[in-house]
Amino acid sequence: MPNHPVRRTLERDVLPYLFSARRLRRQWFFRLHSLFGYTTDLVVALAAIGVTTPLLGLLGGGNGSGKEATQTPHFSAVLASVPNWLFIPTAALIITWIVLRVAFNREDGQKRAVLAKSCTQVLRQAEANLATALGKSDPMPALNELLEKNIRPTVDRNIQENSWPWTPFAPGIDDEVTKEVVRLCASYETDWAPVNPLGLRQSPLGGHQ
Questions:
Q1: Residue 15 and residue 173: Cα distance in Å, rounded?
Q2: Total domains in the fold of the chain
Q3: What pTM was computed for the model?
Q4: Each residue of 152-171: b (16+ CB within 10 Å) or e?
Q5: Same-domain pairing of 129 and 101
């Protein structure tokens, strides 16, 4: 007996997109964006209560604007401010930090991270709307609308901007997709209109659509 077209759509299109989107937060540019953002906020918060050092200033990249702006300390000034036993670890930290910053900027990390964050929000909303679509006797129109108006346009834009690194799905999600298909079908499939062996949905009057 053939799979219900709703099951096929979930397994081949909808769920692979949704599970791939969950992996965007694991991408290096997304993680670095979060790290740099939290670091800057922490440095600003510490400076507001009077806690400041050259190392914190360097990691924060300077903060403020106008007359209150602070310049990023020089490398030598930072090293001179730490004890001798911390000289090598601090130098290694600073060099690593600089390399990460350069790589992040050169690879458009900021832009890619912002787009990826927006993408995860759109697909998270699509995932939230999935239950409403599947609760109908014929979920296909709602699923197709979800794919064509929300999911695919968002993913296509992120592919063009290199913030969606797969074409089109993330690797290693097959088992998760299969488990979710089984769970969703167990919850909703009894409400779906049956299909005949040719894959045509049967109407309540006994005809085909």
A1: 9
A2: 2
A3: 0.77
A4: eebbeebeeeebbbeeebbe
A5: no
